[in-house]
Each structure stands twice: as structure tokens, then as C-alpha cells.
Amino acid sequence: AAGQRVGPEGRVLGLDISAPLIKVGRDRAKGMTCAPEFRVADAQTWAHQVAPFDLCVSRMGLMFFADPRAGFANIQRHLRPGGRLVFVAWAAAEHNPWFDLAKRAAAERLGPSEPGDPHAPGPTAFADRTRVRELLTEAGFEDTQAHAVDTTLEVPGGSAEAAALAQYIGPIPAQLRAKNGNEGDRAALLEHMRSAFSVHEDADGCHIPARINLFSATRP
User: Fold this and answer.
1) Residue 150, SS3 per DSSP
2) How confident is the model at residue 82, as a pLDDT?
3) φ, ψ for residue 75 (rounded to 5)?
4) Does the predicted TM-score (pTM) go above 0.90?
5) 147 pLDDT band (50/70/90 cuts)?
6) Half-sphere exposure (CA, 13 Å, Cβ side) for 25?
């Protein structure tokens, strides 16, 4: 999407630590006039020596930084003065049925999970918008902004597809591993999630309510 917007004089670079996701990016960019460059790299530590960038965007990625302050500072160093960082991350689990329903279902079937650090790297690590703005300021950014956006997760295949995805993305796989769950547990949780998601289903698929946090900041 960024490559389509910058025009023939622009340049776009995509980073991710996941080689399979980088391959998806390269495959999608084939045939583009202004095809982005892709690299397997960690944005928290990656260094680039050429001219600074105008904009850094991230969709559901930065909350996995092992050290978010260091990661933000590294991004800030790669932006020109006045350059912007714009990114989204999940809001708290209670505002996201994808996580909340799965967490409660796993606890009912397998037992409650052990309490952990809510700010540890993970999907909801940036749920606290005030904390993230403070981290951005400490990393050298100014004009930090943050607000919640209500949206929906669209799953064309309906509740069955949504439940199948929940086996691999979200709290259920982590709890199956932590509690030594078996295939019977997996099947029961899949059916539970299919039923829970069915209330959000119509002829066009499953439309699961969601809330994300949208952040932006500027390099001085």
C-alpha cells in the first residue's frame, strides 16, 4: 500500500523478523511500478546509512519489541527532522472479543493462566496509551498522539474460519502449550469459539468487534 502511494520518485522499505511474512510482501509487490524493497530485519536494532526516511508505519508489529524505548529511539534516528512514526496496536483484551472470548474459553477448559507482566512483549503490550506516549517522548519524539479506534475483524469464511484461526493466533495456542492440552482440548475449544463467534456472523462472513490504539509521533 505504501509503494502504491509514493509514486515513481519514492522509495519504500519493508522490515520484519519473519521470513515467511517478508516472502508474502515480496509476492504481493510483484509487478508494481514502485515495488518496495523487503528485508528480514529487526526494526529495534536495524541500522541504515542512507538518507533519512519521511515516514515509518507499522500495523500490529511494534508491540513485540523486546525493548520498546530502544526500538522507538532507533526508528527516530532513521527519520528526517519532521518525519513521522504512525502505528497501530491492540487495545486491552476486554475490548477485543478475539482475545477475551478465547482467554475465558481456555481458562474454563484448561484452568486459569498464570498472571504475567501486562507490558511484556505481546499483542496487548501497548494497551496503555499513556505509557506508550511516555515511551515515545523518552525516545526523543514530540507531538505524540494516541486514541482508540473501534473497528471490526472481517473473516469471510464465517465463524468456522474464525475459530480455526483462533487455534493458532491468540491466547488459545499459548494456553494449550502451557497447560499441556491435548487434541480433545483443542477440538473442544475450536467448537466453543465457533459458537461464540457465530453471533457476529451473517451471509457475508464473520464481523468481530475490535478496538485498536492508533499512535503517531514526530521527530523534532
Assistant:
1) strand
2) 97
3) -65, -45
4) yes
5) very high
6) 20
